[in-house]
């Protein structure tokens, strides 16, 4: 049995020698194997930490920069959306006001009442303006008659 064991050890030593693997131990035989393993683990942990730091520098900084850029674009888009919503509301109010004025003028024209231009003078500005109403009759998208209903 000792002979067989010795042959196995010699065979394994030959395999190690032929593989090109070399190993040296700086530890004396009296040193504890667990201490050696703890030292190797500490070296491995330090190497892992350094590699992670390097990876963070090369990968996470561009990702962080991209995230900051996307956040800025999102904020701009939100502000632009709010601005457009306010513009839309202003235009909608103007549309409603114009539709009401048109409705009033049409009612006046249908009733045949006299129209006083003095009512249409804009007193809110330093310049005076007169609003005039014209009528158009359209059939199938074509103007068939056009006139100034107030006698202009």
Task: Please tell me about this protein's structure.
One of its GO terms (biological process) is intermediate filament cytoskeleton organization. Residues 30-57 form a coiled coil. Keywords: Coiled coil, Keratin. GO terms for molecular function: structural molecule activity. With 152 residues, the protein is mainly alpha-helical. 64% of the residues lie in helices and 7% in strands. The protein contains two helices and two strands; from the N terminus they run ααββ. Strands 1-2 form a two-stranded antiparallel sheet. Strand 1 (135-139) and strand 2 form a beta hairpin. Mean pLDDT is 77; it is low at 125-130.
Blueprint of the fold:
Blueprint: H1 2-19, H2 33-111, E1 135-139, E2 142-147
Antiparallel strand pairs: 1-2
List keywords for this structure.
mainly alpha, 2 helices, 2 strands, rod-shaped, keratin, structural molecule activity, coiled coil, Keratin_I
